[in-house]
Design a protein that fits this description.
single chain; 449 residues; alpha/beta; two-stranded antiparallel sheet; 18 helices; 11 strands; 40% helix; globular
C-alpha cells in the first residue's frame, strides 16, 4: 500500500499530510482501493515523541482543521506527535455523498458499498497507516464520542496496535440492541428540553409560534425543501452540547418578518436552520448513524430511534398515528410541550432531506442489515492495554449507564465520571480531560514495566 506525504511548516510545527492507498474491502473481496488522509503535526522538540491518533466523533465527521491551534491539540503537542485522521468517507479520505453512493449501481450495490464505511474498516485503515509509519510499534489513540466507539472496537480487534486508549464522551453498549440506547436518550432529551424552557422565559411560545406557522405556510430551507414542523423538532440535536439551549434561544429570538402584512420566517432563521438540519455536509451521519450500534445482538437496527419514539407519546408529532392531536395548533392549545428531538435519525428524514433522498432506499436496506459484531467480549475481558475515559452523567447522546456497563467489561479500563460537561467536554475543557487520562494511562504503563 503506497503512501505519499506532503510536508510544510506553520510557526513552530511541522505538518505532514499523509495520503495512503488502502483496500475498499480489507477482507479482500474487492480489488478496488481508496485513499485515506491523515495530518500529522509535530511540535519542534517532539520529533521522537510517540504518536497520538485522534478519532473524531460522528459518524461521518472529518478530523479537525485547527486554525489556530489550541485546546486539547495544543496540550497534546507538548507530549505527542498528533495524528488527525479523516475516517474513510470523510474529509479528504474518499469522501462520499449521495451521488457517489448512487453511482455504485442498484439499491443492493449501494447498501453493500455503505457497509465498507463502518468502524471495522476505519480500524483496518488506521492499522495500515500505523504499520507504514512505525512498523510494529503501537501508538496511542484518543476518541471523542463515535471516535470512542471506534477505539472500543480497536481494543477488541487490534489491541496489538495500541499503546494506550483515551476516550471522551462515553463508550458504546457492546451487548444491547440500539433500541435500548434510544430508550434512554429520549427521556434525557426531554429533561434537556425542560431545562432549556425553564431557563429562557418566552422561548416556549416563540417555538410554538414557528411550529404553528410552518403547518400552514410553505417556508423553504436554503436546500430547497419545505421546512416542516417535524424537521423543526430536529434542531434539538444541539441540546446535547454545553451551549445548546442558548443556541436555540438565540435562533428563535426574532424569527419572523412581515411581508405585505403577512408573517414569514426571516432569511437568517432559515439559513441557520438549514445549516443544522441538512446532512449535505455530513451524509454518513444520516446514512450510517444507527449502524454504529449494530452487531451487538442479532438483527438490524430497523430505525431504532424512530421505533423507540413511539414509547414516549410526549414526543409524538401532531398528525401522526401516535399523537392524540391532529395539528400543531391543537397540541399548543391543549398545553402540550413542543419537544425537540436529539441525536436521532428517522426514515422519513431520508426522503425529506435532498442530500439523502436519492439513496433513501439503500439506507433502508442498511437499516435492515445484520452486521457482524465489532466487539469480542473475551478479548475485552483479557485487555492489557492501559485505557481510561470520561463519562458524563448528563450526556444526552451516550447514556452514562451503558458506558459504565461497557467499562466493566474491559479489563483495566478506568472510567472517570463527572457532571461538569455535556457531550462536548473535549471542546470545552480538552486539556484538562487529556491530562487526567494521560496521567492515569502512564501510571498503568509504568506499573506494567
Amino acid at each position: 500500500m503506497a503512501r505519499e506525504t506532503d510536508s510544510y511548516r506553520i510557526a513552530s510545527d511541522t505538518y505532514l499530510d499523509h495520503r495512503m492507498t488502502v483496500p475498499l474491502d480489507h477482507a479482500g473481496g474487492l480489488t478496488e482501493t481508496i485513499t485515506v488522509f491523515a495530518r500529522e503535526i509535530v511540535r519542534d522538540g517532539q520529533e521522537k515523541s510517540p504518536r497520538l491518533v485522534f478519532f473524531q466523533g460522528g459518524p461521518g465527521s472529518p478530523a479537525p482543521r485547527p486554525a489556530p491551534l489550541g485546546g486539547w491539540i495544543e496540550w497534546a503537542l507538548g507530549r505527542y506527535r498528533v495524528v488527525l485522521i479523516d475516517q474513510r468517507g470523510t474529509g479528504a479520505s474518499h469522501p462520499i455523498d449521495a451521488r457517489v453512493v448512487k453511482a455504485r449501481g442498484d439499491v443492493q450495490a449501494q447498501a453493500d458499498f455503505l457497509s465498507y464505511f463502518r468502524a471495522d474498516s476505519i480500524i483496518a485503515d488506521a492499522e495500515a497507516l500505523r504499520r507504514d509509519l512505525q512498523g510494529d510499534e503501537p501508538w496511542h489513540v484518543l476518541g471523542q464520542s463515535y471516535g470512542g466507539f471506534v477505539n472500543t472496537a480497536y481494543l477488541s480487534q487490534a489491541p496489538e496496535g495500541l499503546a494506550s486508549v483515551m476516550i471522551t464522551a462515553g463508550l458504546p453498549s457492546v451487548t444491547k440492541h440500539a433500541i435500548e440506547t434510544y430508550r434512554l436518550t429520549w427521556p434525557s432529551t426531554e429533561r434537556r428540553n425542560g431545562d432549556m424552557y425553564d431557563t429562557f422565559p418566552g422561548l416556549r411560545e416563540r417555538v410554538w409560534d414557528v411550529a404553528v406557522h410552518l403547518e400552514n405556510h410553505d417556508e423553504r430551507l436554503v436546500t430547497g425543501e419545505r421546512l416542516t414542523p417535524a424537521r423543526l423538532r430536529m434542531l434539538g440535536m444541539v441540546l446535547g452540547f454545553s451551549y445548546g439551549p442558548q443556541t436555540l434561544h438565540f435562533l428563535f429570538e426574532d424569527p419572523f418578518i412581515r411581508v405585505n402584512g403577512e408573517l414569514a420566517l426571516n432569511s437568517r432563521f432559515l439559513l441557520q436552520a438549514s445549516e443544522r438540519l441538512s446532512f449535505a455536509g455530513n451524509p454518513i451521519y444520516g446514512i450510517l448513524h444507527e449502524s454504529i450500534y449494530a452487531g451487538t445482538v442479532p438483527g438490524g437496527t430497523r430505525w431504532a430511534a424512530h421505533r423507540a419514539r413511539d414509547e414516549f407519546p410526549q414526543f409524538a408529532i401532531p398528525g401522526s398515528e401516535q399523537s392524540p392531536f391532529s395539528t400543531e395548533r391543537e397540541a399548543r392549545q391543549a398545553g402540550a410541550e413542543f419537544l425537540f428531538s436529539g441525536e436521532h435519525v428517522f426514515p422519513w428524514q431520508m426522503v425529506e432531506d435532498p442530500a439523502l433522498s436519492p439513496i433513501a432506499e439503500a439506507v433502508n436496506v442498511v437499516a435492515e442489515r445484520e452486521f457482524d459484531s465489532l466487539y469480542d467480549l473475551d478479548v475485552l475481558a483479557a485487555n492489557r492495554v492501559p485505557a481510561s475515559g470520561w463519562v458524563y452523567w448528563d450526556d444526552m447522546f451516550v447514556p452514562a449507564s451503558l458506558s459504565l456497563e461497557t467499562a466493566d467489561l474491559i479489563n483495566g479500563f478506568t472510567p472517570i465520571l463527572t457532571n461538569d460537561y455535556h457531550h462536548d467536554g473535549l471542546r470545552v475543557d480538552g486539556a484538562r480531560l487529556l491530562e487526567r487520562m494521560h496521567t492515569l494511562n502512564h501510571q498503568k504503563l509504568s506499573t506494567a514495566r
